[in-house]
Structure formats: structure tokens, C-alpha cells
What we know:
Elements: H1 2-5, H2 10-32, H3 43-62, H4 64-72, H5 80-94, H6 98-110, H7 129-137, H8 139-153, H9 165-192, H10 196-220, E1 235-236, H11 240-245, H12 252-257, H13 266-273, E2 280-281, H14 284-293
Parallel strand pairs: 1-2
Amino acid sequence: MLQGLNQRRDGPxxxxxxxxxxxxxxxGALWALPPLTLNGLEPVLAxxxxxxxxxxxxxxxxFAFCAMHECGHRTAFAGRRINDTVAWWAGVLSFYNADFYRxxxxxxxxxxxxxxxxxxxxxxxxxxxxxxxxxxxxxxxWIGKLRSHWRGLxxxxxxxxxxPADAAAAVQASIQRQWAVYLLLLLVSLVLGDASLWRFWLxxxxxxxxxxxxxxxxxxGGCPCVADGERNTRTTLTLAxxxxxxxxxxxxxxxxxxxxxxxxxxxxxxxxLAPRLAYLQPGxxxxxxxxxxxxxxxxxxxxx
Length: 304
């Protein structure tokens, strides 16, 4: 059964990528509608359509992180080159660097929820309601990403033991290429006097971050720090559109237990693994309501 689940195929990856691109295209088109196009509509409906487009665009950009994550495992497509190419450009859209993240994420899988080893725990989880809401806003994420990119641009990986010395130059070059893309876009925007970079990337990405933070907090938040994939990771059952946008990442315990299984086979893996999971959540709402009431639940604990 596992041999069947592990099969890597291009078809599901291309279909998923096209669906994700469609979200970006529809969102961008609605957000770009000029006022004259909307004159025949009621103002509330007209601006409602534009705001819907803005949010779709923002979610598509923020959740490009999920595309980068899946392709970073090199399982979304059959070939390594297409996985790496999609991962890199998805990282550009979502403000991650795919080559840095791949190595960072390998350690996260190796040392899931173990303080001092899991790089996702470099920043302590929030313990107050204000800290929880600040985390959801995405502001700490922006600050952390700017610092990480700045260190990577200079080749300073002294605080990143997951970047081996023989990979440091390649990761630095990848981050430099990414920022060359950003700077080129910024230069074109300034020369043309055009605000598209802000309007169609930075603003939507910032507005899309809270939903991404919302779902990512559920993956390990409040789970015990034990070396047991059935207990240190949470699977959350959610609506199909969100699961699709996330490239099936809500099946997160399944992904951690079987990281070689492609995203499109995680639902089948869930059918086999669900009875074994200690943290199987029927939805995000109740979980976050409990986090909001008692944000110290997000603190790591050694017993569960």
C-alpha cells in the first residue's frame, strides 16, 4: 500500500498548480477592475467584488508557501527539476527562499517539536492573547523573514545549523537571485511610476498572511514535545477549498509520518492513519477559540 502511495506523478501536480494559478488570476482580475467597469453595479457590490479579488489574490500569494513546501519535498511532480523550479518561484511569490527552506524544513521533520533542535521553535509560541493576535497578524513573520533574508544575502548562516558549510554558497546565491528579481521589479515600478508591485504583491500578501498563520498555528501548536509523530503533530479536517489551496497540508500528521507520500495521496494515507492520531481536529474554529481563551495552550509541554 505504501509503495502505491509513494508513486510520484506529474498529472496531480500540474492540476494543482493550475488551480492555484487560477486563484491568483481570478483574484488579480477582480482586484484590477477599474471603477468605470463597475459603474453599472451597486457600490456595495462593486467594492465587494474588488475586495473579494484582493483577498483571493492575497490568499493565493500567501499560500504559495504550500506549493513551495510540497515541491520542496520533491514529491509534487515526478521530476526533480520541475519540483525545484516551482518551489523557487512559489517562494518568490510568498517571500520565502526555497533553497534555504528545504534544508530548514528537513531539520523540522527530523526534530519535530523538540526545543533546541526544531528550527520552527526558534521563536517561542505566544503565551498571551495579545501575543496570539500579533502572531495571527503576520507582523512577527515579516520581521523574521526580513532578518533571515538579510543574513542570507550576506552569507551569514551562523545561527542556522541546518545549512551545512558545503551548501552555504549555493543558498546565498539563491537568495541573491531572488532579491535581484525583487529589485528589478522595484526598479521598473519606480521608472514607470507604477504602484503595481505594492498593489498586486505586497498589499495582498500582507492581507493573506493572517489566514496562513491561522492554519499553520494548528499544525503543532499545543502538541507535546515528544519524538512521536502520532502525538507531536495535528491533522485538521477542513473545507475542500481551503484544503486544496493548502495542497493538502491539513493532513499534517500524515505528512510528518510519511513525508515521501505526495500531497495528492495524503487523503488516502489519512484513511489508514486516522485511528492512530492523538490530535485529529474536526475544524479550525473550535481549536482557535480555545487558543484565544487560553493562549498559553500554545506553549510546548512534555506531557500529553
